[in-house]
Amino acid sequence: MDQRVLVERAGEGDHDAFAELVRGIVARLDAAARLILRDPELARDAVQETLVHAWRDLPGLRDPDRFDAWIHRITVRSCLTILRRRRRRVLEVELSETMDFPVIDEGSFVVERDEVERVLRRLEPGMRAVVVAHYFLGQPLPEVAAALGIPLGTAKSRLHRSLHAMRIELMAGATTDALELGRRSLA
After folding, report:
1. What whole-number distance in Å separates Cα of residue 82 and Cα of residue 102?
2. Cα–Cα distances in Å, from 187 out to 84, 178, 182, 183, 184?
3. Is residue 122 a contact partner of residue 170, using CB atoms and an 8 Å limit?
4. DSSP run (H or E) holding 168
5. How many CB atoms lie within 10 A of CB 67?
6. Greatest alpha-carbon span in the chain
7. d(Cα 144, Cα 6) in Å, to the nearest integer?
């Protein structure tokens, strides 16, 4: 069935249409929430909050064709709300197997995924949210800015600073790995 029809039916209170609508995207929402929150339990909470908000607010959605972008915005906001509530808690990153990364070489994929996890972990939550929403959810920067409730210029600035910080961290990790390899070969 067409997504637009499902959105319209769900907006009129059809529980089955809503279930069908979110069935295809819940794994993606969970993956994005895990990247932002770095905790699988908190990610599940964020997705649950997202679905509750989406069900409650769906009748007010003006353009049914924008459902995906709309629910991604709700997910990012739910994640940031949870982070605000739990500022002092130490969290861990866990990427799930549901991530859709192009895989050429399994070994290099695992290494690259670990490196991305490592550098994402070091970003401040607001900066991490911009990276995840833009690159992992595929949202254009104007939508990311709207989802986070920040000006477009701020979203661009955060993305630029995040990517710069990630590059530095990746280069530092590569240099450290090369130095360690050199030390091992001399021993």
Report:
1. 30
2. 48, 14, 9, 6, 5
3. no
4. helix 152-186
5. 21
6. 71
7. 25
Q: Which residue has tokens 């970003």?
A: 123
| Tokens 């104007």 sit on residue | 142
- Four-CA torsion 112, 114, 104, 37, nearest 10 degrees: -110
Q: Which residue has the tokens 């637009």?
A: 4
The single-letter code of the amino acid at 9 is R
pLDDT of residue 29: 94
How many Cβ atoms are within 10 Å of 137's Cβ, its own excluded? Answer: 22
Structure tokens at 58: 């769906």
Could you state, in order of their start, the residue ranges of all structural domains in the chain? 3-186
Model confidence over 63-118: pLDDT tens digits? 989 999 999 999 999 999 998 887 654 545 454 554 454 444 444 445 577 777 77
Q: Domain 3-186: which topology?
A: Arc Repressor Mutant, subunit A (1.10.10)
- pTM of the full predicted structure? 0.61
Task: Pull the structure tokens for residue 44.
Answer: 């599940």
